């Protein structure tokens, strides 16, 4: 598929809707492998039967469930990351930041079969977390890093306020051989960042990969609190802020 064809397909995915919609919190996890000479990133292809972005390669992720904030963790988010994930507005809170961060971990399990955390007894009755209970993995937030935020433009059928959060492959406590239980992603692959940018990926995914590539060049450890881009539309034009 050419870049023009991808752009047309993406326009269809985010077609104009009939009424204003508030963007829903969402989280995407960028899992990085730094074991070789090139940093690699995990991507998976969305199933061709999906109505939204079929056949595109994406990071694991999805909508945030507010109940995720009540899931116990063995470590907490770094303070420098917590409020940047939550945002700076009336609805910002530590609970919201936890929910967003934990939804990135939950979605990575559901879509890719990778459980991020530490081995140990874990109990939860929350939907989506039973895999962590069964495999004895307690989710951990300490090494998560906020790398970008993007809000779908107004007027679209689907609108998301997405936080892109990075973690390291060695934070994965359990990797299920058959992938995640939802089967939303297929063809899971680890690729160098430069090669990943050549896949059939959404425009925002390519942009975030470029931003991350530039950050890794000067900040290979992804220190907490480093400046990160925030993409949105203001007064009918796209804006890139730094937060």
Q: How many extended strands?
A: 12
Radius of gyration, Cα only, in angstroms?
Answer: 17 Å
Q: Stretches where pLDDT falls below 50 for ≥5 residues? A: 1-17
Mean pLDDT figure: 89
* Strand and helix order: HEEEEHHEHEEEEEHHEE
Shape descriptor: globular
| N-to-C CA distance | 34 Å
The biggest sheet, with number of strands, parallel, antiparallel or mixed sense and barrel status, is:
9 strands, mixed
Figure out the total of helices.
6
**Helix/strand class:** alpha+beta
- Beta-strand fraction estimate: 25-35%
Task: Describe the secondary structure blueprint for this structure.
Layout: H1 3-13, E1 24-33, E2 40-46, E3 57-58, E4 61-63, H2 79-86, H3 94-112, E5 114-119, H4 130-135, E6 137-139, E7 145-151, E8 160-168, E9 172-175, E10 185-192, H5 193-196, H6 203-218, E11 229-234, E12 237-242
Parallel strand pairs: 1-8, 7-11
Antiparallel strand pairs: 1-2, 1-4, 2-3, 2-10, 5-6, 5-9, 7-8, 11-12
Helix pairs in contact: 2-3
